[in-house]
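Quick question, first post here. What does this chain look like in 3D?
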Amino acid sequence: MVGDLKEFIDKNKEELEGKREILEKVEKEINNYLLVNLLNKSTLKNISIQSRIKRSNSLGEKIIRKKAIREFSEKPEDYVNTLKDIIGVRLTCLLNEDEHSLYEELVSVFSQKI
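> Answer (accepted):
Ran it through. Tokens below.
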């Protein structure tokens, strides 16, 4: 079982690293979208964007924590393709009273029909 788990983790790390270039491009596009459609139009100041792409080490930890090998044993590389948090974005406002306004602006931007 330990060998199977190690192989499962290694395959998923390999899959993640194979997607790294495209994920970096997507991360940049997300940040740019937020900058253009939210931050540049916002009346709020001191809002920052932080983003990250899941690291291989944290992927291994998540696989163990979620017991992913049970569900994805047939095609281990499919696990990476199902991750909902492969790219994470955090918007930080320095003032607590700005949180509600930032939330309302986010809802407004993401409720628009494109």
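The chain has five helices and two strands.
The beta strands are 47-53, 87-93.
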